[in-house]
């Protein structure tokens, strides 16, 4: 039970890592009228879920969780570098690093001490910080993935609710529908081989790069 409670804390919107300040390109997609409705937001998020979360973030999280448990600093460094290399724009790389740095500052206050050989990796990506906390709190790998998925999905939906805008009820309906895909996404992530890890989200990359020079912005990405 205690591990579950620690997971809830790690995925809480109140965790001070600034997750709510990023839209991951959605802000420009709304500005360009690529995403203008509940249906289009669902399609956008589903594409990200199936072609990035299932094939990049979660597989890397699983590998980092395992590497931390085996005290394999080389694998930790490898997968953190690989994840950053897969971030296709300046904003997406900055987001990964900024959230990683915020989590690295927070973790010692939660009694999660990061060994010196892991400090640079944990600061480089939020996934590493999440993985080391999961290992410290004895959160099972699959449970950590489900929590990470839910946190990402909740933030993505709420960003769309604010930007389009949609009502809160529409947001809750979206969460209900899209969350039905999560068991399949987790199974896909678990089954993926090392040489298949990666993302294919060209629309997000375009939107993110255009967001860097967007005239008026509410979000940092």
TrEMBL record:
One cellular component (GO) term of this entry: cytoplasm
Protein's cellular compartments: Cytoplasm
Record InterPro entries: UreF, UreF_sf
Swiss-Prot/TrEMBL keywords: Chaperone, Cytoplasm, Nickel insertion
Keyword DNA damage: no
Quaternary structure, from the entry: UreD, UreF and UreG form a complex that acts as a GTP-hydrolysis-dependent molecular chaperone, activating the urease apoprotein by helping to assemble the nickel containing metallocenter of UreC. The UreE protein probably delivers the nickel.
HAMAP family noted in UniProt: UreF (MF_01385)
Family to which this protein belongs: Belongs to the UreF family.
Name of protein: Urease accessory protein UreF
Gene: ureF
